[in-house]
Design a protein that fits this description.
Blueprint (H helix, E strand, L loop, with lengths): L2 H8 L9 H14 L5 H8 L4 E6 L6 H16 L3 E6 L4 H11 L3 E4 L2 H4 L15 H14 L5 E5 L7 H14 L6 E4 L4 H14 L5 E4 L2 H13 L9 E3 L16 E3 L3 H12 L12 E3 L5
Parallel strand pairs: 1-2, 1-3, 4-5, 4-6, 6-7
Antiparallel strand pairs: 8-9
Helix pairs in contact: 4-11, 7-8, 9-10
Length: about 290
């Protein structure tokens, strides 16, 4: 066959009409010869590598990010691209270094849609199936169990997305006609977290339920209650967020919000590659009902 025909098949050129039989002959020969495309040569020809970079800031790792990465990686692989995940605090300079070094097809900033304030973008912070909807699910579960005075527990006020989650939770409480939402920080280490919960209860005795930023903060809150001789849900109901395995192992077992983000990752992959996302629908989040509420 001609070099052009082989090239069209191996590069899956959408502008060429090549018979299925010819495609199979080329692909079979490539398998037998152990052919692999030359990444640098391909990048020079295409103007970028077939690498997509995902930046994840510290403090955003969890079940959501892991399932997001699985979906993103799988979808990119199905389109002959490779995922590179970077865990750190990312700056424009560090991102520029990556771009200059490997010329990626795209750079994705994890949770960027949440930070940009696009509340109604349902592939980001939306109220249909984005972070806003997930935050509302958490508050609504407490309200359905009779709690009208709720606080949002945060790991640190500077944590990425802390202000966004507080905003979404506050708007949900207002919509449900609950008392104005309050917040507290439950820090590390254990003694400091216990002191914070003690001080908060002394100042806000009306609060009967805690919606935690994530399961880690929820578990710190449960530990603080234990150290204070209190319990959940009798003295204070506690609901987590992100459904880590540890929540099922403590006593009382932690009620939490489970989010399957693989479809979100696949959507992000198709957006990065400029592909149609028709047919990809996110799986609705759900409350994992256990004992702490």
């Amino acid at each position: 066959m001609s070099r052009a025909t082989v090239s069209f098949v191996l590069n899956d050129d959408p502008n060429q009409t090549i018979s299925a039989a010819t495609r199979e002959r080329v692909q079979q020969a490539a398998r037998e010869l152990g052919y692999a495309p030359h990444g640098l040569a391909r990048a020079l020809r295409e103007g970028s590598s077939r690498v997509v970079v995902l930046n994840i800031d510290w403090g955003l790792e969890g079940n959501y990010s892991r399932s997001f990465v699985r979906g993103l990686d799988s979808e990119l692989a199905s389109h002959d691209h490779v995922l590179l995940v970077r865990h750190a605090h990312h700056t424009p300079r560090s991102t520029r270094q990556v771009i200059d070094a490997i010329t990626p097809r795209a750079v994705i900033q994890f949770a960027e849609p949440y930070r940009t304030g696009h509340d109604l973008d349902d592939r980001g912070g939306g109220w249909k199936d984005g972070l806003a909807a997930h935050a509302a699910l958490q508050i609504r579960h407490l309200a359905e169990h009779g709690h009208t005075h709720i606080a949002l527990a945060l790991p640190d006020p500077e944590t990425p997305l802390a202000d966004v989650r507080l905003r979404f939770a506050t708007r949900t409480a207002e919509h449900l006609g609950l008392a104005p939402l309050t917040s507290l920080v439950v820090p590390r280490p254990r003694e400091t977290g216990t002191d914070a919960v003690r001080a908060f209860r002394a100042a806000h005795s009306e609060v009967t339920a805690i919606a935690a930023f994530n399961d880690d903060v929820a578990l710190r809150t449960l530990t603080a209650l234990h150290d204070l001789g209190l319990g959940a849900p009798g003295d204070l109901a506690v609901i987590g967020f992100d459904d880590t395995e540890y929540g099922a192992l403590v006593t009382p077992a932690l009620t939490t919000v489970h989010i399957d983000a693989e479809s979100h990752g696949r959507l992000a992959a198709r957006a990065a590659l400029g592909l149609d996302s028709t047919g990809l629908e996110p799986v609705p989040a759900r409350v994992v009902v256990r004992d702490s509420v």
